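Q: What would this complex look like in 3D?
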Amino acid sequence: MSRFFSKRYEMLTPYTPGEQPQNQEYIKLNTNESPFPPSEKAMAFGREELRTLNLYSDPECKRLIAELAKTYGVSEDMITVNNGSDETLNFSFMAFCDDEHPAAFADITYGFYPVFAQLNGIPYTEIPLKEDFSIDPEDYIGIGKTIFIANPNSPTGVYLPLEQIERIAASNPDNVVIVDEAYVDFGGESAVSLLDRCSNILVIRTFSKSRSMAGGRLGFGIGSKELIADLNTIRFSTNPYNVNSLTESFGLGILKDPQYMKDCCETIIANREFTLEELRKRGFAATDSKANFVFAKSDRLDGEKLYLALKEKGILVRHFTKEKIRDYNRISIGTRAQMESLLKAIDEILEGQK
Ligand SMILES: *Cc1c(COP(=O)(O)O)cnc(C)c1O
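A: Here is my prediction, written as structure tokens for the whole assembly.
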């Protein structure tokens, strides 16, 4: 730290992203990316845009927002777009949290929430999940805080039914309830259907997981036009060009090819169920994940040991050191061949244990 670093940020512990080795030596099952590249149709769209790279991007992202509005059946003023949903999340902490509206989220959830709270000097409460890693909705009823719920949750994959989201939102009318739906395309129902009744819900979505565009950095928020206007005030006060023209047009191309995304999601769901079944056969305990990953612990091997042994064999998974989940690993779902390699590696590792 230099002697010039602002006192405001002295105590900040940055988020630790999953490893991104810059070679092809690993089977990467650690950051929940799609194993499938964007479709040819989507890529053709993006390439068109290269010719106008000398011009600034459209700060209002009109074409993209119009297509998103059509996709989700809402009006255009109910959508904002950002440089990955991480940015939408940060802007939500900035816009909807302060000393009178402290933040609340689960103790086991997306690791960026406490970082954003700290970055913005916002007080926050971490609410323990139940023993089975589900959320107890009662813990959130009428708490009078700005609530962040990843649904399905990460790293657990557990999904909270929409009725409970609605109850939580209705009981906290003076606060925003942010529903982070990074994984909802893999088996959950979207809270977008609640927006008519609950004007205090903000849904946050990303192109990084189900839409094969993690490297393109594209996220968006869906909510009442008032909430979206607030987020746009923050966006236009930081970086109006946060979504560059290439990302906008690739994103547009992906939206124009919805069947491809649907097919990819179906394949991943089938591979997830296959992997869950095979892991359970091998004595693993796993949550009923509704996401593109499984969250599992072996009855024979320590979580960290398994993570390291897999890495040695060229397979990256995500291990977290937090006490409550240190026995587990989060394993992204890849192609069937990748999952078969994972299972083979696990068999070899367990065999070596005997
Ligand atoms: C991956 C992830 C995000 C971040 O997505 P980006 O759009 O790539 O920034 C947000 N929330 C959760 C819960 C995630 O797992």
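A: To summarize the key features: Residues 258-281 form the longest helix (24 residues). The chain has ten helices and twelve strands.
Q: Very helpful, thank you.
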